[in-house]
Amino acid sequence: MAESNLDLSFLGDFDWWHLATILILIVGAAFVAKLLTIYLKKSLTDKIKRSQLDLLLKVVNYSVLVLAALMLLPVFEVELGGLLVAGGFLSIVIGIASQSVLGNLISGVFLIVERPITIGDNINIGDVAGDVADLNIFSTIVKTYDGVYVRIPNETVFTSAITNYVAHVARRFSYVVGIPYDADAGRAIEIIRGVILEHPFALKNPEPTIYVDELADNSVNIKVMIWAPASEWWGVYTDLLWKIKAELEQNGIEIPFPQRVVWFQNELALGRGVRSGEMSDSHPDYSFPRTGADNAAPPGPDVDDDEGR
C-alpha cells in the first residue's frame, strides 16, 4: 500500500486552545460579515441599484473572509513573511494599474454615504450642469439641459465643488427693472410688488425684496428679489418677468432703452443755411486747391519717335 506524502505532523501540536481560536475566528468573521451586510442593506437600499448593492455586499463578505483566513494562518504555523512580501508587491502592481478605478470606487462609496447629491437633483459640477440621472459606484450620470447625458467619474465629482440648486426647498432669483427718470419709483415698486404677490408660486415668506438699486445712464434701476419653490423657480422666473413688464406699461411706465444724442456742429450749421437759401460765400469750400500743374498744357507728340516708326 502506497504511503501518503501529506505531512500532517503539525496536527499533533493542536490542542483545545487552537481549536477554540479557530472557532472564534470563524464565528467572529461570519458575525462581522452579517452585521456589515445588514447595515449596508439598510443604508443603501434606496440609494443605489439592487445589482450594485449585491456586488458591494459580496465584496464586503469576501474581504472579511480573506482577513479571517490570514488571521488563521499562524495557527497552522504558516510563515507569513514571504507571503507578506509577495502580497506587498502584488498590491503595489494592482494599485498602480487600477488607481483610477479604485479612486472612483472609494469616491462612489463616500458619495453614497454622504449624499451631497441624489437622483433628480439639479446640479452644476465644473462645466456640466443639469439633472442627476443616475448615481453609480464608479460614475455619476448627468442629463444636461439640452438632453445630453454626461458621465462624470466619481473621483471628479467627489473632489469638485458641487452646486446643488434644489438642496434647499426654496430658491431666490432676481431681476433688474429699469424705469424712466420722470417716472414715480415708489409707484413702480408698488406695482411690481402687487404682481409678485398675485403669483401662486411666489413665496410670501420670505417676502420679496424690491428697492431702487442704481441711477443708471438711461434709467432708474429697481432690484427685484423673489423666493420660489426650488422645483418651480424656473417657471416663476420666466412668468413673472413678462407680467411685470406688461403691468408697468398698463400703468403708463415704459421700460426705457439706451439712447444717445450726438451733435455735429458744422453739419447743423450747413443744414440751416441750405434750408434758408443762404448759399453764399459763408458756405465752406471743400474743393482741393489748384496747383500750377493743373494749368499746364498736355505734352505734345514726340516728333523723333514718330519719325522712327
Q: Largest beta sheet, briefly?
A: 5 strands, antiparallel
Characterize the quaternary organization of these chains.
Answer: single chain
Helix-strand topology string? HHHHEEEEHEEHEEHHHH
Helix content: 40-55%
Low-confidence stretches: 303-309
Mean pLDDT: 78
Name the strands of the widest sheet in spatial order. Answer: 4-3-2-1-5
Q: How much is the radius of gyration in Å? A: 42 Å
> What is the beta-strand fraction?
15-25%
- Principal-axes geometry comes out as elongated
The total count of helices amounts to: 10
Number of strands: 8
- Counting helices, strands and paired strands, the structural category is alpha+beta
Whole-Å distance between the termini?
136 Å
Please give a structural write-up.
Residues 58-99 form the Mechanosensitive ion channel transmembrane helices 2/3 domain. This protein is elongated. The chain has a 5-stranded antiparallel β-sheet with strand order 4-3-2-1-5. Strands 6-8-7 form a 3-stranded antiparallel β-sheet, with helices on one face. With 309 residues, it is of the alpha+beta class. Among the domains are: 14-97; 116-164, SH3 type barrels, CATH 2.30.30; 170-250, Alpha-Beta Plaits (2-Layer Sandwich), CATH 3.30.70.100. It has helices spanning 16-44, 50-72, 81-97, 99-114, 154-159, 185-198, 233-250, 265-275, 292-295, 303-308; strands at residues 122-125, 128-135, 139-144, 149-153, 162-164, 170-179, 209-215, 220-229. Helix 1 (16-44) runs antiparallel to helix 2 and helix 6 (185-198) packs across helix 7 (233-250). The chain is 47% helix and 17% strand.
